[in-house]
Specification:
The protein is α/β, with parallel strands linked by helices. The protein has 10 helices and 12 strands. Helix 3 crosses helix 5, helix 5 crosses helix 10 and helix 7 runs parallel beside helix 8. It starts with 24 loop residues before the first strand and ends with a helix.
């Protein structure tokens, strides 16, 4: 059947409620499946978009270790979205080339011969006049990233402890009903119902496609109630900035902290962050100072634990907050300070914390002995996790060790 171009009236006779559009109609199967081509095209586009997002999601999962170790996501972080470079997905396009230039694809090729055109002459590469490949960037929400992280690492959902796990009902418009206020009327669903009714009753005239919904055709957006935890959390990051910690070690801490944040934020309504740096003494700083302080001084880890405990007692009561503490160090500590650290943890901090994670980033200058001492707490305290992070490639395994408890 040839396409029909005509004004379409949609509504219940309301004055001025006239939608003029050019609609092409196709026969799909039978009279009952007689649908506007515009709707069909929209459905195809939506399917393509969903298929593309599945491809992107699969690429991110398969290369998650690479993205984590390079920190590419962190540098492109916005308020709610993260821009991710995807060099593995190139937009297909045709380009004009030089005829008879040789190489694989033009004439015979040799095993191992590269697909790209070779440079003329020897020596350093010269500037060219041909366009190069471009990296496609896609945007994903932090919530989607948290889902991908959880799927790839098989992480359990975090269960907030005690009475802080207060559950409220969150309303979300995710369904359609036949009754409701006019302000929530679903235009497309109402139109489709009216069109189906007129076709099935034989009152639809293809030469004058006037669609007027009746009361029984109207469809309205509706909501469902979903349980939503109202619990809040505080994440306390502590880092050794003594002379044995280098910029590379701090970058490892920065990357791992971003992913810990991403996972914890997916389970709480609100998340506060506290940053503590220490050498022989400790101080609370902002996020920028935490990652950019230059190394100096000796190491006294107990100073960080004492400050962490004071902050919790004064600002974050354990009865009201889910508390997480992560300490990153190269394991080099003043020998006489070790018993004090273990006592502070066992008697003061651990009873208040959902989780305490100690990550030891290896340094060419540190002794690394503190990990052995803190591992003594594992037998009696289930909320203690220790992890060794020798380089960036170990970040993913370290995150899994920290978050696999589901606390």
């Amino acid at each position: 059947m040839a396409p029909i171009c005509a004004p379409v009236r949609v509504g219940s006779g309301h004055p001025g409620f006239l939608l003029t559009a050019f609609l092409g109609y196709d026969w799909i199967g039978s009279f009952r499946n007689f649908m506007p081509r515009g709707i069909i095209v929209g459905q195809k586009i939506e399917k393509d978009v969903q298929r593309f997002r599945k491809i992107v999601r699969g690429k991110i999962k398969s290369n998650l270790s690479k993205y984590i170790s390079r920190g590419e996501m962190i540098g492109k972080k916005g308020n709610d979205l993260v821009s991710i470079p995807m060099p593995q997905i190139n937009l297909p396009q045709f380009r004009y080339g030089q005829k008879g230039s040789g190489g694989v694809g033009v004439g015979d090729g040799q095993p191992g011969q590269p697909l790209s055109q070779p440079q003329d002459g020897d020596g350093d590469p010269q500037a060219g006049d041909q366009p190069g490949g471009h990296i496609l960037e896609v945007e994903m929400s932090l919530e989607e990233l948290a889902d991908i992280l959880g799927e790839e690492l098989a992480l359990p959902r975090i269960e907030p402890k005690g009475k802080k796990n207060v559950v409220t009902e969150k309303e979300r418009y995710s369904s359609i009903r036949s009754v409701g206020p006019e302000s929530l009327r679903h235009f497309k669903r109402t139109y489709k119902e009216a069109l189906k009714r007129q076709i099935s009753s034989g009152t639809y005239n293809p030469t004058r496609p006037l669609v007027v919904p009746e009361r029984e055709d109207k469809r309205y957006r509706s909501w469902k109630e979903f349980p939503r935890p109202e619990a809040v959390a505080c994440v306390i990051y502590m880092m050794d900035v003594s002379g044995s910690m280098t910029d590379e070690q701090k970058e490892i801490v920065r990357i791992e902290s971003f992913w810990i944040d991403t996972w914890i934020k997916a389970h709480y309504k609100g998340v506060d962050r506290v940053y503590i740096i220490h050498d022989a003494s400790a101080q609370e700083v902002d996020e920028h100072t935490f990652y950019h302080t230059r190394e100096s001084g000796g190491t006294k880890i107990s100073s960080a634990y004492e400050l962490c405990n004071r902050i919790i007692d004064t600002r974050y009561r354990p009865n009201d907050w889910n508390l997480y503490a992560f300490h990153f160090s190269d394991g080099d500590n003043w020998g006489d300070d070790v018993p004090k650290c273990l006592e502070l943890l066992a008697q003061q901090l651990l009873p208040k914390l959902n989780l305490f994670g100690y990550g030891q980033v290896e340094s060419p200058y540190g002794s690394g002995e503190f990990l052995e001492h803190i591992s003594e707490l594992l037998k009696d305290h289930k909320n203690v996790v220790v992890s060794r992070v020798p380089d960036r490639e170990a970040i993913l395994d370290s995150i899994k060790q920290f978050l696999s408890t589901g606390r």
